[in-house]
Amino acid sequence: MDNVTNNVSYIVMLQGFNVPQERAFLAFLLAVLGYMVIVFCNLLLFLTVILNRALHQPMYILLINMPINDLIGSSALFSHLFREFLTNSKAIEFPACVIQAFFIHIYATGVVFTLAAMAYDRYIAICKPLQYASIMTNAHLMRLIALVWGTNLFIIAVLFILLLRLPRCRNNVTHTYCDNPSLLRTMCGDTTINNIYGILTVTCTQPITVGIILYTYLQILITCFRSKSTDTRAKAMQTCATHLVVFLLFECLGLFTIVSYRIPKLSPLLTNFIGVSALIFPPTLNPIIYGVNTKEIRRRAIMLFKKHIFPM
Questions:
Q1: Which of 151, 142, 147 is nearest to 204 (CA)?
Q2: Of 88, 78, 87, 74, nearest to 17 (Cα)?
Q3: How far is CA 273 from the centre of its chain?
Q4: What is the DSSP string of 150-202?
Q5: Pairing, β 11-14 against β 172-173
Q6: Strands 91-93 and 11-14
Q7: Sign of CA dihedral 258, 262, 267, 268
Q8: Distance in angstroms (rounded) separating the CA atoms of residues 285 and 290
Q9: Which residue of 27, 48, 83, 134 has the smallest Cβ count within 10 Å?
Q10: What is the Cα–Cα distance from 206 to 200, expressed in whole angstroms?
Q11: Under a CB-based contact definition with an 8 Å cutoff, are residues 169 and 145 in contact?
């Protein structure tokens, strides 16, 4: 097996976007613009919460994990896109490919874990308001955040430890970016353990996180409709609607990505576009959705923007 690994190139070839050379620089500029929008929107949301003591509440502290996670995923994607468009090359070093795949998986798992934690927080706040302060203490909040990131890192670390134990015998990755399934196809040897672990992680994490989100919001809806206060009902519904829009956006784009790679008749350009959509649209839209729909964040963000960027 060592001979097989040694005979394989250090370079991995991605499928790429097949951009004509005369349009490569334009594609690079568009990619830079898109990435700058993502960084600006997510940093604005992050700094708005961090720099305003009034927003140092469990709901907002959990929320800032979203822009951190979004920046991890988008940076993993765009770092290679910049290089591909500038050099007109689809090649990537194998260690860089593994690192990109690792952080993309951290992003994907982190989205649903964070949304599940936020759903739990809203469930306690709306369904058990009298117990909220005693349950969502600073210590409990820190444990919740540590559980989200610790579980995420552990699951993905094991996934890639199992991947890297295998010898590699192919160089071509049939994907726009590196991920575990595409890298697994470049490996030789018995991948049974990898496949079983991959299936177990999906079948365990998805039902649990989606189940938490659906159950908590169902309970919130029931509580809201039973509430006699119109203002409380409207505020709770608006908060929950924001979380659900973000959740559905990511889940739908993820589903489209999975389906697109199983339809061979789709054009490569469309397949590639759908493939990167889950790493571009949620990180771009999430901070905008939260900023527009959350009154307190919107107000504080405008104040921060005026004070530090356009001071009067």
A1: 151
A2: 88
A3: 17
A4: HHHHHHHHHHHHHHHTS-B---EE-SSS--HHHHHTTB-S--HHHHHHHHHHH
A5: parallel
A6: antiparallel
A7: positive
A8: 9
A9: 134
A10: 10
A11: no
Query: In the chain, which residue ranges form alpha helices assigned H by DSSP?
Result: 2-6, 24-50, 58-63, 65-87, 94-127, 132-135, 138-164, 180-184, 192-226, 230-260, 268-293, 295-308
Please, what is the end-to-end C-alpha distance for the chain in angstroms?
67
Counting other chains too, the contacts that 18-26 makes at CB distance below 8 Å and 24 or more residues apart are 18/268, 18/269, 19/85, 19/88, 21/88, 24/85, 24/86, 24/88, 25/85, 25/86
| Residue 93 zone, left/alpha/beta (φ > 0; ψ -120 to 50; rest) | beta
On the CB side of 209, CA atoms within 13 Å amount to 23
Torsion of CA 108, 112, 115, 119, to 10 degrees: 180
Do 44 and 304 contact (CB within 8 A), yes or no?
A: yes
Tens-digit pLDDT profile for the chain (312 aa)? 444 444 455 677 777 777 778 888 898 999 999 999 999 999 989 999 998 888 899 999 999 999 999 999 999 999 888 988 888 888 888 899 999 999 999 999 999 999 999 999 989 988 888 899 999 999 999 999 999 999 999 999 999 999 999 888 888 887 788 888 888 888 888 889 998 998 899 888 889 998 998 899 888 888 887 777 676 667 667 767 777 788 888 888 877 777 766 676 777 677 777 778 888 988 998 888 887 777 788 888 888 777 766 555
Give me 117's structure tokens. Answer: 């934690």
Token pair 């097996």: residue: 1
Question: Residue 43 CB: number of other CB atoms within 10 A?
Answer: 13
Contact 48, 301 (CB under 8 A): yes
Structure-block tokens of residue 111: 């989205």
What pTM was computed for the model?
A: 0.89
